[in-house]
Amino acid sequence: MGATGPTVVVNRKRGGDMDSLGMLQRAVDDAGRLVDKVTPDELANPTPCSEWTVRDLINHVTGGATIFAISAEEGSVPDEEIGRLMTGDNLGTDYKAAFNTATARAMAAFRQPGVLEKIVKLPFGEMPAGVALNIAVFDVTTHAVDLARATGQTVGDTDLLEAALAMGQEMIGPELRQPGVFGPEQPAPSGASAEDKLLAFAGRHV
């Protein structure tokens, strides 16, 4: 998630809490379930993120999870490390193990005592770690839906989908609607599913 472009400020009013930690764990678990079912011949499938294949998407979330983890652990990520994690290969020869290792590290980092009150620096701005946690819920859940659509799977946790959308609506303002971060919000059709509403808000055409 994020871009190395200009620093932007997100809505800092909503911080993370134990409920947010639980939601992130649910998002990680759901995404992990989807990744575990991805077969090697599906890695080249296109995704709702038009510039990414399935492998690219898993690589992105894996790198993003590592960035969130290092930020929570140390407060910031060295620029050269951000560049590597955002543009390099984070998966190696075992995409499932790489994803699970990175997301487990992120969860452990966010569970550190007092971490949610820290100020952390991410590629798109500085914020309390609790706000970064909520962005992570939105980001991981959105990409889980992307992955599900690309591989014929579903995200069945409606409560998670609705919570992720609410977090995104509270925190994602116009300043984050820029290339490499989030695209312009798209219209969701009448009677849209929770998955479609989340994708449309994140800038996907549904």
Describe this structure in words.
The chain has 206 residues and is mainly alpha-helical. It has a single domain (18-201), classed as Four Helix Bundle (Hemerythrin (Met), subunit A) (Up-down Bundle). The chain contains seven helices and two strands. The protein has helices at residues 18-36, 54-74, 79-87, 95-110, 129-151, 158-171, 194-201; strands at 119-122, 125-128. A two-stranded antiparallel ribbon has the order 1-2. Helix 1 (18-36) runs antiparallel to helix 4, helix 5 (129-151) packs across helix 6 and helix 6 packs parallel to helix 7 (194-201). The model is unreliable at 1-14 (pLDDT under 50).
How many structural domains? Answer: 1
- The succession of helices and strands, N to C, reads HHHHEEHHH
Strand content: under 5%
Secondary-structure class: mainly alpha
Secondary-structure arrangement, i.e. CATH architecture: Up-down Bundle
Shape: globular
Count of helical regions: 7
Provide the low-confidence segments as ranges: 1-14
Average pLDDT taken over every residue: 88
Kindly identify the CATH topology. Answer: Four Helix Bundle (Hemerythrin (Met), subunit A)
